[in-house]
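Hi support team,

I've been running sequence recovery on a batch of backbones for a student project. Most finish fine, but this one hangs at about 90% for roughly twenty minutes before it completes. I'm not sure whether the input is malformed or the queue is just slow. I've pasted the structure tokens below so you can try to reproduce it. Let me know if you need the job ID as well.

Thanks,
M.K.
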């Protein structure tokens, strides 16, 4: 199975579900703090692949949700400048395994990349891996 370097906002419960799904599939996952990483433009770009620039942005970032930032309005250079200044703008997770990098957690893409041993259980739960979640007992806002 794969060894994955997984950058996310530590404490994110959706990320915890994603990591658990990867580990249940037999993968080794090294979780790192995306917000503490000193990203440079080349590093970030290497995770985005052929995604349109607007999809590089975290749609749950407070600045995106408030309308302060319209992801569709930026070219690659401007987007990278913003993201290097405010890491909450970076779509999560950023993952690397075997020299291949990926942004976001689309279970079908992850399965095609490194595989799930239980795709029949993981793939139907795609929406669960895409949205922020908190237990009902916690009065926390959605993850940025």
């Amino acid at each position: 199975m794969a060894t994955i370097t997984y950058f996310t906002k530590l404490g994110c419960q959706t990320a915890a579900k994603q990591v658990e799904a990867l580990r249940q599939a037999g993968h080794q996952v090294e979780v790192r703090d995306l917000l503490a990483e000193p990203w440079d433009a080349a590093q970030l770009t290497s995770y985005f692949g052929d995604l349109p620039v607007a999809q590089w942005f975290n749609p749950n970032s407070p600045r995106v949700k408030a309308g302060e930032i319209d992801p569709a309005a930026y070219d690659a250079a401007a987007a990278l400048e913003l993201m290097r200044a405010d890491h909450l703008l970076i779509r999560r997770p950023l993952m690397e395994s075997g020299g291949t990098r990926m942004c976001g957690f689309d279970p079908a893409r992850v399965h095609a990349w490194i595989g799930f041993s239980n795709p029949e259980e993981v793939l139907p739960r795609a929406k669960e891996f895409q949205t922020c979640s908190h237990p009902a007992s916690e009065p926390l806002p959605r993850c940025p």
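--
Follow-up from support: It reproduced on our side and the slowdown came from queue contention, not your input. Residues 13-24 form the longest helix (12 residues). No action needed from you.
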